[in-house]
Design goal:
The protein is of the alpha+beta class. The chain has helices spanning 5-34, 112-119, 123-140, 145-150, 152-167, 186-264; strands at 37-40, 44-50, 53-54, 62-65, 71-77, 81-90, 96-107, 172-183, 271-275, 278-284, 290-295. Helix 3 packs across helix 5. The protein is rod-shaped, with a radius of gyration of 59 Å.
Amino acid sequence: MSVNVRELSNAPKKTSFKGFKWLIAGLAAVFIAANAFTIVPAGHTGVVLTLGEVSSTPLSEGFHVKAPFIQTVEKMSNKIQVYQTDASAVSRDLQTVKSTIAVNYRLVSDMTPKMYKDTGMEYETILMMPVVQECMKSATAKYNAEQLITERESVSNEVKASLDEKLNGYGIYIEKFNIVNFDFSKEFNEAIEAKQVAEQNLLKTKTEQEQAKVVAKTEAEKKVIAANAEAEAILAQANAQAEANKLLEESLSSKVIAYEQIQKWNGVMPKVTGSDGGLLIDVDIDDTAPNTVAAN
């Protein structure tokens, strides 16, 4: 039996090379399969790029199949995001106003392909930053410095309305606009502080005057009440005295009359006679004028 040495030496090499090819093919298949799908996370929209061309139809959340190596998917967030920046403007009374503002916004999912095509992922820098600065300057110029402080909510609402008008067409919806802080010049802050001190002093003076008026009114009312009480007491005393005088006068009058009658009595007792059921009373009060009273 003869053995071909050349065949024996070539056999392991062919087997090893064939196994390596299958390994490469398997790895390639895995790599291709991994690039044949994409997953769009919750709160995001997928923008499909086919060899760099933007598809007008966005991908919703979830699992999607795509052409490997030909298509790529950019994930754009539709969640509420915060854009915060500093802004400088001039008020109606020509005061320099520096403010810190915060814009809560979100991207409209149906318009993300157009936004990506127009601005890419730099929409905050390209779209929002100049528009926010412009709207803030425009709104600030309508108010004086003091109104910016006291009417902050009105200023915020006006800026939000302007932002919606300018950014909604690009697919950016403004949820809320907040003015975090206002900062004015040192001179203006000192003037505001001096005004507040003056107003507080004025309020304190008015309060003290009102309190003095209340105290004076209370004291006057007390005096009136005391005077009325005294007058009523005097009146009551006078009425009592008058009543006493009246009683005394009546008592004295009756005694005087009785005394006068006694003085005029001549000492003769009255005579009483009766005739036919009648009475005849003869009373001599004085000796010159006898009084006769008949009673039936």
